[in-house]
Design goal:
single chain; alpha+beta; Immunoglobulin-like; 2 domains; 9-stranded antiparallel sheet; two-stranded antiparallel sheet; 32% helix; elongated
Amino acid sequence: MLRRSTVIYLAIALTLASGVWIVAQRQHLRQEAASTAAIAAPLFPFATTEIQAITLNVNGETLIFEQRFAPIAQWWLVEPVEVVANRGAIAFLLNLLTEPQPYEAFLSEATTLGDYGLAPPYATITAQTQGGQQTQLTLGTENFDRTKIYGRLDAQETVLVLPLDFRNGVMRPLSEWRLEAPEN
């Protein structure tokens, strides 16, 4: 049989351990909720329907897309060649820019932007609205474990750590940006 004092000590230890565990769980949940709310936001301050033109500069190659409304609303690749753009590729890119995406952010000095591949950038995405408002996202290199890509919005001092989908959204051959003609 256990002595009475041993049982009391065990009860006190169990109570303290339970209290510490409950407090730790609550703090963890609060931190998770705060970080999730802070990093799931759209990058561009306007809706997909407001975007009139997109310019992509990837590895020195420039692609310009324009939304035209006659006779039906369509995206057109206007530079380097003028053809109807692939609706799926454009929709994927616009979704990345205007829908909430999970990302992290940290401050960086202009002298260290090269460490993240942002000076000069790997790719630049510029979106222009019908009202003339422009927003620019520059993409740099992948992080150390190749699970994210660095980015920068409107030349701010903040470096963003974005999903690799952003790289996949711009890194396409020209043939994937064009609408395929149906075969007869």
